[in-house]
Amino acid sequence: MKKLIIDNKEYKSRLILGTGKYKDFKETKAAVKSSACEMVTVAIRRMNIGQDKNSQNLLDVISPDEYTILPNTAGCYSAKDAVRTCEIACELLEGKKLVKLEVLSKSKNLFPNIIETLKAAEMLVSKDFKVMVYTTDDPLIAKELENIGCVCVMPLGSAIGSGRGIINKFNISEIVENANVPIIVDAGVGTASDACIAMELGCDGVLMNTAIACARNPILMASSMKDAVVSGYNAFHAGRIELKDKASPSSPISGLVTGD
Amino acid sequence: MKILLNNETTLLNDELTISILLDQINIRQKYFAVEVNEQIIPKSKHKSFLIKEGDRIEIITAIGGG
Asked: Is it true that domain B2-61 has CATH number 3.40.50.720?
């Protein structure tokens, strides 16, 4: 079974958590712990200047010494803004160059703006960033992003925060079959079975935020997602049976006590 | 001296360095970045970099996000 290696680091957990939408840092930390993930995404924003100097910040709670921090470019609608955000993230995280590139469209479904995403990916790779890129489930674009030099390609299952699961399993399968970099489904997971399906399709991991943070019990859902990802991964490698048109009895048809 | 600090007009008494400004506004955390007029100023230069009238200063951090 293939190891998950991103930017020369091996990950035992194939689940990546977003840290948005939690009630407070305590809940964020508990969910991250419950999920057993090793990588979390963060957003890059202006600091709240007026805050109490003793109040905690996210990275006090989720330490970069303990977790791989994956800064995202959420809120960027152009390649230029995304690159600027990554440069800021690099300074903020003491020179770390692993980033989650997402250049969105201002449409109601927040689909990736592929034209700007491709431009930003080229610019970031040329600046030696290690780019994990959010994209649509178009196999051709996924391959192009790999060819540009992204270290990981992350197609959406469905729209961000929609909880609609994997809309196009065939596309995700094709992306996986053609890939030489890790493929991680990012966005759309609603519940554990969605994460499981992503892994059963052969994906290398799943990234999610809303499905856990907005669950009635985020800590329990985080644990459930941990199990779902492991279960789906194992099922993919165990090899599912062929689909058949007719029934096939599980018990022997001969030797029946009630038969002749 | 008038500057734009995180998109808010802010008045400063004297010409001062980034380090002094950070101290005055109680920035104590380890993980943050500073931009002046859209140029990142690395932490190694905060003690020597003088803020000028009209500078647009951004102090940036990591927050929860997906």
From this structure: no
| Count of alpha carbons within 13 angstroms of residue A59, beta-carbon side | 24
CA distance B66 to A229: 18
pLDDT > 90 fraction of chain A, expressed in percent and rounded: 90
State how far residue B58 is from chain A, nearest Cα, in angstroms: 7
Residues of A in contact with B58 (CB under 8 A): 46
Using a 10 angstrom Cβ sphere, with 0-12 exposed, 13-18 middle and 19 or more buried, the burial of residue A82 is: buried
Domain boundaries, given as residue ranges, for chain B: 2-61
Mark whether A23 is an active-site residue: no
The predicted-structure confidence for A45-56, as pLDDT tens digits, reads as follows 999 887 666 678
Dihedral angle sign, alpha carbons of residues A42, A75, A8, B30: negative
How far apart CA A151 and CA A5 sit, in angstroms, is: 9
A51: which 2 tokens?
């805050």
Q: Which residue matches tokens 């990012």?
A: A186
> What's the ipTM?
0.94
Strand partners, A6: A9
Residue A181 · residue A206 · CB < 8 Å: no
* Residues A76/A47, Cβ–Cβ less than 8 Å: no
Q: Give the one of B6, B30, B42 whose C-beta lies nearest to A47's C-beta.
A: B6
Contact (Cβ atoms closer than 8 angstroms) between residue A169 and residue A148:
no
| Contact status, residue B28 vs residue A53, Cβ threshold 8 Å | yes
Position A53 scores a pLDDT of 64
